[in-house]
UniProtKB/TrEMBL annotation:
<feature type="modified residue" description="N6-(pyridoxal phosphate)lysine">
    <location>
        <position position="35"/>
    </location>
</feature>
<comment type="similarity">
    <text>Belongs to the pyridoxal phosphate-binding protein YggS/PROSC family.</text>
</comment>
<dbReference type="InterPro" id="IPR001608">
    <property type="entry name" value="Ala_racemase_N"/>
</dbReference>
<protein>
    <recommendedName>
        <fullName>Pyridoxal phosphate homeostasis protein</fullName>
    </recommendedName>
</protein>
<dbReference type="InterPro" id="IPR029066">
    <property type="entry name" value="PLP-binding_barrel"/>
</dbReference>
<dbReference type="InterPro" id="IPR011078">
    <property type="entry name" value="PyrdxlP_homeostasis"/>
</dbReference>
<dbReference type="Pfam" id="PF01168">
    <property type="entry name" value="Ala_racemase_N"/>
</dbReference>
<comment type="function">
    <text>Pyridoxal 5'-phosphate (PLP)-binding protein, which is involved in PLP homeostasis.</text>
</comment>
<feature type="domain" description="Alanine racemase N-terminal">
    <location>
        <begin position="10"/>
        <end position="227"/>
    </location>
</feature>
<keyword id="KW-0663">Pyridoxal phosphate</keyword>
<dbReference type="GO" id="GO:0030170">
    <property type="term" value="F:pyridoxal phosphate binding"/>
</dbReference>
């Protein structure tokens, strides 16, 4: 399979899942998760019609940015966010998907303010309550959004989650549904800096299920780029 064929197949699957859920496929944003992939592969994905790319590592992303890998596409940061790297990505990415604390929101706000921009972010939720994973506990989400509401240089645009490795599809489904509930709840928030529109969940193995449960942003790596070279980590 070529990458072009992969992109077509993934698109068709997105359409199928959206139709099954009675939703418009055009509402669903496909983000190519391009970690470890060289700039040339990223450019090829963009040419094949992938309009957004997600990166995990700041250094790798900055290198590929310099190489023009994302030209013509939207760039998202989807990896674990370290406070000391925030300065390097604010203003360079369309969306930071993986923010998991008030301290980090404040730092993003501070850096965005310096640049005179508004940085769009998603809040990562630890929906499975796993000690090993980043993300805000669902019970803390409301308080976080309220505390962040005075930060005018950030725009909180939704939620992101990576559910636990499930034993059964039904189990994953339950996490996706729980995320959808949270998403609907926070959509009613009155905060000026909340522009809730993205529910980011679903990867190569489960994006169809995620869409059926309400996701409108899927982060797909392997199903587009093939398997990753571990050596690039
Ligand atoms: C790598 C990655 C993905 C894509 O994973 P695949 O299983 O290869 O599709 C999605 N989201 C995040 C945060 C990732 O790090």
């Amino acid at each position: 399979m070529t990458m072009e064929e992969n992109v077509l197949r993934v698109r068709r699957q997105i359409e199928e899942a959206a139709r099954r859920a009675g939703r418009d496929p055009a509402e669903i944003l496909l983000v190519g998760a391009s970690k470890t992939m060289p700039a040339e592969s990223v450019r090829r994905a963009v040419r094949a019609g992938v309009r957004a790319l997600g990166e995990n590592r700041v250094q790798e992303m900055l290198e590929k940015l310099r190489e023009g890998a994302y030209d013509g596409a939207e760039l998202h940061f989807i990896g674990h966010l370290q406070s000391n790297k925030i300065r390097q990505i604010v203003g360079k990415v369309f969306l930071i998907e993986s923010v998991d604390s008030l301290e980090k929101l404040r730092e993003i706000h501070r850096q965005a303010e310096k640049l005179g921009i508004v940085q769009a972010v998603l809040i990562e939720v630890n929906i499975g309550g796993e000690a090993s994973k980043s993300g805000v506990p669902p019970a803390d989400l409301d308080a976080l959004l309220e505390a962040a509401s005075p930060l005018k240089s950030i725009s909180v645009e939704g939620l992101m989650a990576i559910p636990p490795q499930a034993e059964s599809p039904g189990e994953t489904r339950q996490y996706f549904e729980a995320m959808r509930k949270l998403f609907v709840d926070i959509s009613r928030n009155p905060y000026d800096n909340n522009n809730i529109k993205y529910l980011s969940m679903g990867m190569s193995g489960d994006f169809m299920e995620a869409i059926e449960a309400g996701s409108n942003l899927v982060r797909v790596g392997t199903a587009i780029f093939g398997s990753r070279y571990q050596i690039h980590f």
